Each structure stands twice: as C-alpha cells, then as structure tokens.
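REQUEST FORM: STRUCTURE PREDICTION
Request ID: SP-0412
Submitted by: Lab K.M.
Chain count: 1
Length (residues): 240
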Amino acid sequence: MERLQKQISALGYCSRRKAEELIVKGLVKVNGTVVTELGTKVDLNDVIEVEGVTLTKQEKEYYVFNKPREVVSTTSDDKGRKTILDYFDIDTRIYPIGRLDYDTTGIILLTNDGEFANLMMKPSSNIKKVYLAKINGILSLEEINTLKKGIKVKGISYNIDKIKVKKIDKAKNTSMVEITIHEGKNHEIKKIFEYFNLDVLKLTRLSYGSIELGDLPSGKYRKLSIHEIKILYSQIKKQG
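STATUS: Completed
RESULT:
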C-alpha cells in the first residue's frame, strides 16, 4: 500500500505535487469513487482515474529539451501561450522537472517518472545548474567577492557555487557572466543581479547536473540515455 499521490506520480501522469492538487480538487477516482483525502492509500490492484483518464503502467521516458524564449515550462497555459509540450511529437504523457522563466532559454528535463522528478526537485538534491547571463553592467571585483560570500535579497539568502565573467563589452556596458547554483529558488539568477541594481537581459541554462546543452538546437529535444540517468541519480546520492 502507498499514498495515492505517490502512485499517480509513479504511473507517470504528473508530479506528486500536482497529483495532490488534483486530489484536493476532486478530480481523482479510486475504483470509481472520488477521493479527496491526501492520506488515502492504494495498492496495485486499485483502478485509479485522474481527470477522466484511467492510469496504466508506462515505460519510463526521460528527455532533455532546449527551451526557446517566450515558451512556458508547463504542460498547459490558460493564457494560450506556447508550452514546451507543443514541441514534442510523442504519445507518452510527460511533464517538466522544475521550470524555467518565460523569457529564459536552455536546458530543461522532462519525464513521466514521478519519483525521478521528485528526487531531482528536492532542495536536498543539490543538483548544480550552470547559467549564462547577459547583464546591463560590469561587475566589480568587490561585487564578485560579495556574491561568492552569499547575499540576501528581501530577507531571502542566495548562495552561488561559482561565478565567472566570460565577456565584457565596455562600449555597450554589458557583460556575459557564467554562474553556477544548486538551490533553485524562484527567479534566483535575476534576484542575485538585482542585488546590485543590474538587469538580466538574456538568460540561458547551460547544464542541469551532468546533462549539458551542448549543440542541441533551440526547440529540439532528445532522449536521455540510461547512463546519463544513472549519473544523475549518483549525483543526488553524493550530495545527499
């Protein structure tokens, strides 16, 4: 026996957090009966129906996608904006692991493996992500050292793992800065530079753990290999 939301996630319908939302909204049935209690437990013989869809066991699939600008990192959007799933031509129901902002480009992982997604998104996983930011200014050595020590923005602490200025354009007063983080707070990179009254003009995520963007074109995806997935799992264990 296991919790209903965990079983929905394991069957690949959505993340555990999203499953909890659907249960509370009365959109989940077990053996034909609507269930709204998050503590409900089920076994493998129970028939689970979510939003009218009867769940069956699926083969696990894992993808890396290069998200373009002005695309939302969700499976649907009530404003009619393009979502990352609009770029996928597959039959499997997948969903993103975490999110990238609407105007942020780069690497994002998608899967139908709920347990894998939950492990990746746990704050304790400490999976490192590398970003390349174009900012409207030039960081001083003092500001870089301040960032390395950690800062607070509106009472929230932000800590970085590495920072490297890749390019400076003095004529345009802009910089390209590579920054590595592991915490994954909302709008983290933008808020870090906001501390110095700097705007992020462009932002790309170059890597997620051991998975690098490489030469994957914008708007394209590829499957992760078993070897790549094992490495991601091992990185979580090392950090944990």
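NOTES: The domain at 2-54 is CATH 3.10.290.10 (Structural Genomics Hypothetical 15.5 Kd Protein In mrcA-pckA Intergenic Region; Chain A).
Reviewed by: T.R.
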